[in-house]
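Worked Example 4.2. Consider the chain below.
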Amino acid sequence: MTKKQAQPFLKWAGGKTQLLAQIESFFPKELLMGSMTRYIEPFVGGGALFFKVANTYPIQDFIISDINPELILAYQTIQKEVEGLINHLWDKQKTYLALPGEERKNFFYQVRTDYNQQRNQINFDLYTSNWIERTAQLIFLNRTCFNGLFRVNSKGEFNVPFGRYKKPRICDADNLRQVAKILEQTAIHQGDFTQCKAFVDQASFVYFDPPYRPISKTSSFNAYSKQSFNNSEQLRLRDFFHLLDQKGAKLLLSNSDPKNEDPTDDFFENAYYPYRIERVEAARNINSNASKRGKIKELVIINY
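Applying the procedure from the previous section yields the following structure tokens:
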């Protein structure tokens, strides 16, 4: 039997699992030939592309980061203490699945309340044993909340409501162990995307998956953290893309395609000229109105 490969341990809005084959078709030939030695992802999110690269290509060094401290805490916890995390998740799964429907809902909201109230007690810069319970709470909420989203309000509080799943898989021990193996050779950082600059060289492949620019006034969703990512931030990322291009790195960036709604919107064509811009077909799944879900174009911007 083929050994199971590591997969994202969180469902993340904007995750690239469904787009892996399309995005992989744009990978630089140097990665395919084995001459790229470092993979860097400054908006790691759920990490679908990161795990794909780690499972498939002979990269020596991995560097991932994200501005979301809760997400980075979870990655670091799996890296440091995966077995302790599995034990906590297994206990939560057994408790939760044994409860009837209404009691499951109460249990969910109690975990959500504890998660939000304990936030100020967490030192995100220094690993302690309470990181294990916090990561278990995050994974539990992600697996049992509505649509499996991670979303926070302006105070940084997780605010997704209860989801009525009959038998959610809260503890995927095999996958967590595979993730931990990959993270053994991974440097994990929390902070702004520009922090990766010092690690980028000519043998680096950098993938950017920032919060997407909204394609309409009603489609905005970038509440992965309490910081917003507006047009100014998109252009700051463009400037950083150009800076890394000058360092000789291979760069690939994903974003929304505003032409889905407005064929005259040339924001990215203007911002990233003269870089190569391609389009892939994605599914829009996060809209609360089912009639507005379906196929949609996304951009892939490349410097090679």
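The chain has a mean pLDDT of 92. The two ends are 38 Å apart (CA to CA). Compare this with Example 4.1 before moving on.
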